[in-house]
Amino acid sequence: MPETVALNDVQAIPVGQLFAPGAPSYSIPIYQRNYTWGEEQIHRLIHDILDEAEKGESKDYFLGNLVVATADHEDDPLDVIDGQQRLTTLYILLQMLSSRTELKNLIGPMQPLVYEAREKATRALHSISDRHDEIEEGQNEREDTGILRASKIIEQLLAGGKEGKILQDRRVIDYLLTKVLLVRMPIDRSTDLNRYFEIMNTRGAQLSPVDIIKARLLRHLPDSIDRELLNRVWTACSDMDHYVVMSLTAGSTAQRAAVFGSDWNKIPSSDFSCLREQVIDSKTDSVETTGHEDFATTVSTAMTLDQALVTYSQTIVTSELEDVNGDERFTSQITFPTFLLQVLAVTDERNDSLRADDRQLDDKILVQRFSARIDYLPYSERTNWVRKFTTDLLRIRFLFDQYILKRESSLTSGNESTTEQEQGSWSLYRIMRGSYRRGKQLQDTPKYQATFAAGDSGTGTRSLQRRILLLQSALRITYTSPRTMHWMTEALRYVNDRAVLNTPTTGEGFLHCLESHAQKNLRMAMNSGSDKTSPDGMALGFAIPRIVFTYLDYLLVEELNQWDFTFSYRTSVEHFSPQTEDKEHIDEAYRLRDSGLLDWLGNLALVTVSANSKFSNYLPGQKANNFAARKQSLKLEVMARQAESGSWNDDDVKYHHEAMMKLLNRALAGE
Question: Which residues does the UniProt record annotate as the domain GmrSD restriction endonucleases C-terminal (predicted)?
Fold first, then answer.
């Protein structure tokens, strides 16, 4: 539909009109970065749209801004200044939907999106709709890997399970095309773009959802010392890349011993008054810095509520960590907003069916989640709730640091990265008090030891510590979106419940908790109710949930005695016997006569997009020579070994399929 509004006006553009014939076309200028969105960002955008569409309301949903530079000539494309990641993702999504015959007319013809002076990116965008056709050898290397990765992520989402069916529902597509809007904001081409980006990135005066929640909690604490304690705890816990033992008590080992015990490994008190006495010395007229460079406020009962809100409402992490000594080498797997939602979920006393709702971990509704929890309480109970939340926040953060995996900032030998771009090895350490000699004096320093190093857990290759780290990393790369990290909620709830009862957390008990959660999801995945299945009921191809592949690799660690295996971030389902035959190199020993076996679990493995691209349409015997890819999946390793022995035919696929199903069913039976 041609647009009737002048191009230099701000407009709300429905997704269905972004690339329609007659509408302005778009170009990504050369100075813009390449397409970089991964699975988490793509899934978040699509889930946000699905959430709105499933409400059954006809309200418009604004995805965000699209800032463009006006064209010099009427027929020239608009240069995308801000919003190119979102725009490219929408283009890929529409192309993938249009590639389905039954949806092609619904999507309609589309103008191409162009990446200026980047032939690989433009070629990749233009070939998306033809992805089901035969791919020439070497074509993947000529295309942009980020765009290729995104198309595979969306393809697997469309082909897999309930979400894929919902996304292809005509009612949902109609909502996407007509009610999901981008606000297109034109700026003059003569604008100083460096100045524009400087203004866009200067947002220190804006309150984030985290700041809004903090300000509201502070309003329910009439005592200024209580407010100071909440501020100290909040600021320390928001620093997700340092252990809270260090960040809460930076600069004072005596205070650290008071709060966390003489060895720094005791969970903080659940008594708000006790914690306040340990952290805030109300009798000392000392100056405490809030972490905001413009405020250094003396803690006293004279501080008014409004002063406290101004002083403490913005979450700025203190830099006073002079005694951390290397603590910054660890990286948290979730952000502070997601951690706040985890704390709410852990302390939620509702039934399990409500606990498993993905939306309770969606940081898009962070403020609403807190508002719902506080507003439910009588006004007289809200102060005590905030006090309890303060102690819960610190205690659960302490448990998070001990029992939830992190990633070390530097890649160590034998470890894979968690994304195709990001390096780092998985780690699971608790912090302890150590010492080192400085001259003639011993100085306190943090030391890190395996969380389950003591007693019968051991630290060897087959130890509980190793099993727990393997399973957590398997779950981490399975459920990449923060809103689906229910395994983390269950793990934190398990250790928190034991801490409340003053009961130790054992390696056996913690591993059982993780395995039970994984197996519950595995059981649902194996009984997904897919329309098309193998004879034993397993879904086919892209419809097989990722937990099936990752849990198989977890089980195969012991089966194959491969205890040095490391889980890496993988999103691409690889057909070992290719969907499209390489007709020039057909070998009967590596050929499936029954094409229906192509999508059986026995012919599939989960690998990175880059590995999938390099495999192309090679025969299994050739794929077995890619030893780097074999390291990504033990299931692929088993398949490659069979191919090395001389065949990968119908019988081989059936045998491997049955062996993998037997392994899964044994695990579910507790054998």
Answer: 552-662
